[in-house]
Amino acid sequence: MTNATAHINEESRVVLSARGLRRDFGGFTAVRDVDLDVHHARVHALIGPNGAGKTTVFNLLTKFLQPSAGTINLLGTDITRTPPDKVARMGLVRSFQISAVFPHLTVLDNVRVALQRPNGLAHQFWRPLAALDTLNERAEQLLASVGLAKERDIVAADLSYGRKRVLEIATTLALDPKVLLLDEPMAGMGQEDVSVIADLIREVARTRAVLMVEHNLSVVANICHHVTVLQRGEILAEGNYETVSNDPRVRVAYMGTEEA
Ligand SMILES: Nc1ncnc2c1ncn2[C@@H]1O[C@H](COP(=O)(O)OP(=O)(O)OP(=O)(O)O)[C@@H](O)[C@H]1O
Question: Whose CA is nearest to atom 29 of ligand 1?
């Protein structure tokens, strides 16, 4: 095998897949027959109108919800019956909303706390912060890599909304995920912050898979290699952004018309 071939294989490797995923809530089926392949080093968007089932799919993949039917495979291991904490330790990590950031700790301490639970476990929380000093170097590297070095001593509560989201991503990266799930990372942001986070997501996806739910379609167009469109719990269309955005069924689902 040539190096070029090895590179292509590495790039196209499926790291997370679902087959026939289904979730019922009582008599209501929120997710039905969903097949998904998430690739290493690619940004994959999950889009769809409100109530399409995007959050439910995220909850199923991270095992916060148990599927009613179907299978999920992470890095070659069937995780359909695996509990969520173990799935996180295996490398599938969801970026939590801002509440995951400790508002009264500095930026640096937030990352140090995240680094000392590399397996997603919080059992060492009682340790005094001073005991985390050995993690300083890694924390500083991580902050530099996401562009937060200058804000290291700022208390998280004093950061702007956009910078808090960057810190949130940094604390998630501290867990060194192989597959990163981002839940509407651009929600509530101004255009400047959107560009910064978009660049950051592109960068972090160079060495891991990213699956993101996102309503901002220009972001999806700019940074996502692959798009899956959900509607009423089922896959309506998939492919690159150009393919799905030109699909008449997607236009109807989003705008109620086939016209552009
Ligand atoms: N725990 C639950 N019990 C009952 N129904 C639920 C539950 N969770 C979700 N649903 C329903 O499943 C459907 C899909 O919801 P979901 O939140 O996954 O959609 P979504 O695509 O994430 O929507 P949004 O873009 O508005 O966040 C909705 O009709 C919702 O009401």
Answer: 51
